[in-house]
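tool_call: predict_structure(chain=1)
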Amino acid sequence: MKTPLKSRLMAGAAAASMLALSACAREAEAGSSSESTISVEHAQGTTEVPSDPETVYTFDLGVLDTLDALAVPVAGVPQASLPESLSQYGSEDIANIGTLQEPDFEAISAGNPDLIIISGRTADYYEEFSDIAPTIDLSVDAAEPMPSFKEVTTTLGTIFGKEDEVEEKLAALDSRIEETSTAAANAGTGLIVMTSGGEMTAYGAGSRFGLIHDVLGVATAADIAADGRHGESISFEFIAEKDPDHLFIIDRDVAVGEAGEAASAVLNNDLVNGTKAARNNNITMLDSTAWYIVGYGLNNVDAMVSAVQDATA
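tool_result:
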């Protein structure tokens, strides 16, 4: 059973301290860091993982992005559309461990990983992963994205002995977020739209793309009924009626490598072109892979914040 994020966040900074203390205590008992383990709390319980594991497999590309930012080697990733910043993980030197939705358990077992990291798309396979190697579910809670992301990042910093780097990078990110939210407060309303196969869905506060509203402070142009991973189906008339000051566009077809009409073509009509966003050249085509596939990673969140900062400056 998954542990609610709010319960895990109650420990706050103390949890990170406990992780570090646990690592030190176990290291002392074992006599060397190579034999030490850390007790890690995560979305599906608590797992003993090796301190600074050598062979790491991750099914979460946000985690991959964070480990890349911390210069932590990753040995296995799933087949996925990778942004240029992570393109090196598509090389033959990196084990192919399946797809984001369908793990290749035979390949994973053969690779003998020291640690497997999963999240929402593969969360249902937690038991199967755990039979192979220590597994932790580092899903980020969309309802509390930044506290959850910081908790995940702090956990990774503790596991890999990168606490100082994590603290420094998170502090820099907080400064960038503060700058962006200050500008966004006077930027008017925004609407997040994703296109897929010629259809459109909108996302609002508390959704998987809610960073724009919940963290960066862009006012919502509409109350979106659906949340989580599934947006609300909308029409061109809906966009025209809500008349946002800013449109933030994600092209799902591009993100997943499917053929389809480009988002720019889908939205090129009189109804959309009549909005304040279009008239003021405030339609921002977001990096679809970064927002839809990668999500919350240290480098990627910085890039996501920068995109919104540029749009609302």
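agent: The first strand starts at residue 37 and ends at 42. Proceeding to next step.
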